[in-house]
Fold this sequence. Notes:
It is a single chain. The protein has four helices and four strands, in the order αβββαβαα. It has one domain. The relative contact order is 0.18. By secondary structure, the chain is of the alpha+beta class. The radius of gyration is 18 Å and the shape is globular.
Amino acid sequence: MKALLNDRASQLARLTMMIKIGLETAEAAIPGINGQLAELAELGVTNFQIEGPAVYCRPAGPSSDFDDSVVVYQAVIIQPGGIGSVLWDAADYDEHIAPPQGDPVDLSSRFISYAKCPPIVRSLLVNSTGKLLDGLLKDVRPLS
């Protein structure tokens, strides 16, 4: 029993360290990127939404013992708004990503700005930022 408890404590310590490192990295990079995205929005680069992967899910209530529903945070860029997440009920998210996909869904009502995301979500957004920016740059390109 003691070995199991030590193993769990070690796992929690690794998870905590991973989240702290991810959050430090995100805090160093994403606010600056969001500032640049805000400048693009001021110049007219608006009405875009670039979807990334789901980055975090958890029980909707305080514990899965009390409620079996789950919420999902998906990485996105929404212009204007910048990098942040979209909050889904797991069933709605599964329906959203399942083929065949119909008309695009306006995600702005579900959008949570980076600054308002829970720290764990902010720390996990950093892994999706490059892909999100690549998607935006693919869709927004000057013709000259």
